[in-house]
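Researcher: I'm preparing a figure for a lab meeting and need a structural model of a single chain. I don't have an experimental structure, so a prediction will have to do for now. The sequence is pasted below. Please return the structure as tokens so I can convert it later.
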Amino acid sequence: MAAEVSADRTGLVSSTYLGGKFNDEANAAAVDGSGNIYITGYTDSPGFPLGGGAGQNAEAGFLDGFVTKLSTGAPARVRVEDMGISPGVLTVLQGGNVEWVFPNSNHDVHQVQDASGLRLFFSGDRPRQSYYAYTFQAAGIFPVDDPSTGASASVSVPAEAAPAEGTTTTRFRVRWSASPPGRDVVFDVAISRPGGSGFEPWIVGTRHSGSAFVADAGVGTYRFQARVRNPSTGATSLWSPPASITVTERT
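Model: Understood. Here is the structure written out token by token.
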């Protein structure tokens, strides 16, 4: 078990169990400057919890080594069952963790995978009473499916902009990812200006996670949306739920 306690060590913030049904042993643990926990050891459990980017999705020997990163804060949980995926639509903030739960009540083996074509995550076959987790760093809408049953769902990650209100001289900050992109992908960002006909390209093919913005079309409401794109394959997430700012005249 791993737990996060409050700064004054008087309360439990979150906790989780790491392991499968058989023998699991942690040999070392460390914490980084952001409070994320890293645990290494070995397992012989076929249902050992996996995360996105795992180098191995199934057992490959009597004992398999693991290195697991546990991010701070409790994850948003999604159940993957014989009857489907619930909830079907989930919204998390940039950097939010999603944990798919494969309950003991399942009779079949299931999978979850990124259905956008970006290949951001794939659980492999997950037996009942197992888990799989992924951290959604970037803004977008990410379709998810279970190839075993054809069930589908989605995870929405909104763009962010701050402050929410300002004047024509305010320097706003627009963010579309909590971290830089992976090696194979870039970000596209679109803007909707006051009086415009809809969204149009603003920043295309960037590897930056955010940008400053000063109103360039007068007063009114500006909106921003983003997506993840693989330039080599053309695969993309769907455009994110937008972030908006309201601009007024300087007084």
